[in-house]
Design goal:
The chain is of the alpha/beta class. Helix 3 links the parallel strand 2 and strand 3. The protein folds into two domains: about 260 residues, Aminopeptidase (3-Layer(aba) Sandwich); about 110 residues, Alpha-Beta Plaits, CATH 3.30.70. The strands form four sheets. Strands 1-3-2-4-15-5-14 form a seven-stranded mixed sheet. A four-stranded antiparallel sheet has the order 9-11-7-12. A two-stranded antiparallel sheet has the order 6-13. Helix 1 runs antiparallel to helix 3, helix 3 crosses helix 10 and helix 5 packs antiparallel against helix 7.
């Protein structure tokens, strides 16, 4: 069995048996077995889910990390592939099975080359990327101790197989979450003048929030403010006393990100006060931005070109990625790798081309050798 066939086998087994964030128990055992089968040592860390392993070169050198995420999503699969999920309501709809298999391939290749390898490549098979909890948790367990640089990727269905997207600087957005609770006065729907209607007030807030971009901050600052939840009332003839709104903000500039909460709070407070209501505003910082270090831009491209890949400028994404936590600790780089899918991430019919497995594995093995050689 050649490497491509082996990686397809890995990926399909992972796809058939997906597991949700922090529930990746069987996935963890599979990864450990596959690594142990080729003699790759696993670090003894207090992990119930997730695996940290190392390929240690014969020659002394730095330690770098390659990261793959391993969790699935709460989605009923509709892809129609013969190896579809056997777990109702759970699916690898974001390609984390692909990421895991590709990084297993890189580990196998580097293990075969360890006599010529300078330094150590640590593999982070990380749980709970989809809940934005895994990277921070893995770090707290010691997974990044001694690491001097970190690298990772995400598949991109809108790129062809053999294409890699590289961008220096911010690639994925900072992600924040907010909740707004409006308290008015309930009453009869036929006598709204005797009420303070939180639905009307909430509607004003929804529309007013869209003026922050371009009216309070520059539209060049790449900000998205989205209300994703609006709930109030439970019957047709009563104006409720409360309304609840929730949403998210996505940004690419730290200065702008710091301004947004106060701008939202000021706007919300004033609209509520003008209508005689009270309001509670809660802000939660979720994820920093994926910010690629200029230290590695040229080598990311060079490794791709030496593997015969086409390098393109990566398009930014307003999606979030907890790989960003690692980049707050050490310099790192995150790229797109093309898989030619018809659907975007998180779609129940999500499919990708497995031809990119071997390509991805060989790219990461080559990049690791090049980075370690230059680091030393």
């Amino acid at each position: 069995m050649n490497l491509q066939q082996q990686l397809v086998q890995y990926r399909r087994e992972l796809h058939r048996f997906p597991e949700l964030s922090m529930q990746e128990y069987d996935t963890t055992q599979r990864i450990k077995k596959w690594l142990s089968d080729v003699g790759i040592p696993i670090l003894d860390l207090p992990l119930e889910t997730g695996v940290v392993a190392e390929v240690r070169g014969r020659l002394p050198g730095a330690t770098i990390a390659l990261r793959a995420d391993i969790d699935a999503l709460p989605i009923d699969e509709q892809s129609g592939v013969e190896f579809s999920s056997e777990k109702p309501g759970v699916m690898h709809a974001c390609g984390h099975d692909f990421h895991t298999a590709a990084m297993l391939g890189a580990a196998i290749l580097l293990q075969q080359q360890k006599e010529e390898l300078r330094g150590t490549v640590r593999f982070l098979f990380q749980p709970a990327e989809e809940t934005a909890a895994g990277a921070k948790w893995l770090t707290e367990q010691g997974a990044m101790n001694g690491v001097q640089a970190v690298f990772g990727f995400h598949n991109r269905p809108n790129l062809s197989v053999g294409v890699i997207g590289v961008r220096e600087g911010t690639l994925m957005a900072g992600v924040d979450h907010f909740e707004i609770t409006i308290t008015g006065t309930s009453g009869h729907a036929g006598m709204p003048e005797k009420c303070i209607d939180p639905i009307v007030i909430g509607s004003q807030i929804v529309m007013a929030l869209q003026t922050i971009v371009s009216r309070r901050i520059s539209s060049l600052d790449n900000v998205v403010i989205s209300i994703t939840r609006f709930s109030a009332g439970n019957t047709w003839n009563v104006i409720p006393g409360k309304a609840h709104l929730g949403g998210t903000v996505r940004t690419f500039q730290n200065d702008t990100r710091k301004k947004i909460p106060e701008l939202i709070k000021s706007l919300v407070d004033n609209i509520a006060a003008a209508n005689g209501a009270t309001v509670k505003f809660e802000w939660t910082e979720c994820l920093p931005m994926v910010n690629n270090s200029p230290l590695f831009t040229s080598i990311m491209k060079q490794a791709a070109e030496e593997e015969g890949l086409q390098v393109v400028e990566a398009e930014r994404s307003l999606g979030g990625e907890d790989f960003a936590y690692y980049q707050e600790m050490v310099p790192g780089f995150f790229v797109w790798i093309g898989v030619e899918g018809e659907q975007e991430w998180h779609h129940p019919a999500y499919r990708l081309s497995e031809e990119a497995l071997d390509i991805s594995a060989r790219y990461w093995a080559r990049l690791s050798r090049m980075v370690l050689d230059r680091w030393t």
